[in-house]
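Backbone shape codes
____________________
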Amino acid sequence: MSDLITPELVTLDADLGATKEDVIRSLAALVAATGRATSADGLAADALDREAKAATGLPGGIAIPHCRSAHVVTGSLAFARLRPPVDFGDKDSDADLVFLIAAAEGEGQEHLKLLSRLARALVRKDFVAALRAARTAEEVVGLVDGVVNPPAKDTAASAAATTTETAAAGPRRLVAVTGCPTGIAHTYMAADSLSQAAAELGFDLQVETQGSSSFTPLPRETIEQADAVIFATDVNVRDRERFAGKPGTESGVKAGISDPKGLIARALAAADDPNGHRIAGGGGTEGGGEDTGQLGWGKRIQQALMTGVSYMIPFVAAGGLLIALGFLLGGYGIGIGTTAKDIITNNSLANLPPGGLLEYLGVVLFTIGGVAFNFLVPALSGYIAYALAGRPGIAPGFVGGAISVAVGAGFIGGLVTGLVAGLIAMWIGSYKAPRWLAGLMPVVIIPLLTTLITGALMYLLLGRPLAMLTTALQNWLTGMSAGGSIVLGIVLGLMMCFDLGGPVNKAAYLFATAGLSSGTEASMMIMAAVMASGMVPPLAMALATTVRKKLFTEVERENGRAAWLLGASFISEGAIPFAAADPLRVIPSMMAGGALTGALSMAFHVTLRAPHGGIFVFFAIQPIWGFLVALAAGTALGAFLVIVLKTAARGKTVEGTEPATPAAVGA
């Protein structure tokens, strides 16, 4: 591991261009030139994709662009000392010291640990000063090797200085969690920055780094003894229920690097304030923004709704696909009246129905799928409540969802009961119970009272109006005119392609799957339009990368080859890498294709009985020719538009009138 960096990977006092994109490409070229990467363009594209998610410039004139890439042969560090410095996104200073951290996909844990040691060293002022004073590439290599491969005799001292913990002590104890999307650099830099700040202030701080090289949970006793908690993360905190109810503060990971003392002060202020921010067990921040102490209600409710939808989808997919398979084996007649119920009650393998073994197996699959599908609304409601209030909200949310089904309020009632149960559970849980009662609160008292209040509200006040609203919506869908259905198809197509698996996409999908349980022709037309439109983005990008390869980088062409299968399987997220690299050209093109597909699907009266599966549930689509024509038309339009827009952008770049996007440069 001693050759993580070599003199050939170091350039001193060099002008590598005016932008961070220029610098990253130059450093990627160094890595490729030494045989450590198979493609300089591919490595640069992956690093730029990571850079687009969050800038890697840090206070003090440092930048650490980094990525994991399939083009990296062995983990490497490329270093540049720039003259002049370049803007890497830090608001206070441009960067003159730049490390490109290139890790291979599937890199062993030991290599990632070495990279994390470098990240930790970059918060040490003496190490940074030595890099600026170094006269030769060999001197830089020696400095870096000294921190990533410390002498054995210094290992204990190094560990004592960097493991999140000053044995010194003061009366205040804190715990922290750090994490970034890649889990290579910012995670560990934030951990050490917080540790050093705590040591200077005389506090005891222990950090849990949720990165790539390791994840060792803090002991439960340590969390219980802590006065306050700090979350400095750009990703969800794993098992955050461990910290539920503790005072603290939440922020993005860069705040842990740039303002560690501020985070410590805010965490302790929350501990000293009886009304200060408390860590939520089920919800909370996903990081990535400025620290506000807590999330706004609008954001928390949005996250709760998305949590409910994400937990609901497995029930929908399993139940819907089993129902579709039941129809395939037993015919659509098993879904009429009480046919399936009669067969499952009166027949068996030893006493087959008139349709024989296939009909009986079809009824079994249909019945199992129906049971799973019946959990749709309770799961939606239960996990919305869970996202708001943690585990005490699950039972009231599930019960509220079941009541919604019983009174005819459907998925709209499930949304309402999930929010109501979650908010009530949060409210009850905010009361400080005596010690003798505290143990019963989350297990008995909160679920009991919340279930009672939520159920009573549904039966006595909310259930009937919500049922009337649901019935009116179903009647409107059933009675849609041809023109109205086409407009609805356009709207659903636009929603499915707007954010590719995000909240808007999920809202359209929830609308379709919730209505599918009614079994009406209108609901099945909506399901068909939604699935066909959602298949367009990955298929359109796959087609575009096949037809005009030169417009895309090698990485994008590889993603395009994978997108054929993803699109055919109705996985809209297959287009996300393209949208992230060039959103202004890709997303409008995909939306246009999705709108056309949705409109044609409705115009052809295509119906779909399965909620997922893409082209592989062809047996549940009628007429299949209408579905394929609508899908092909939208795919062709999306691919055509993205090719036209990227070609135009490429021409402007050559003329020097517009900056190139990463995709255009790769061409």
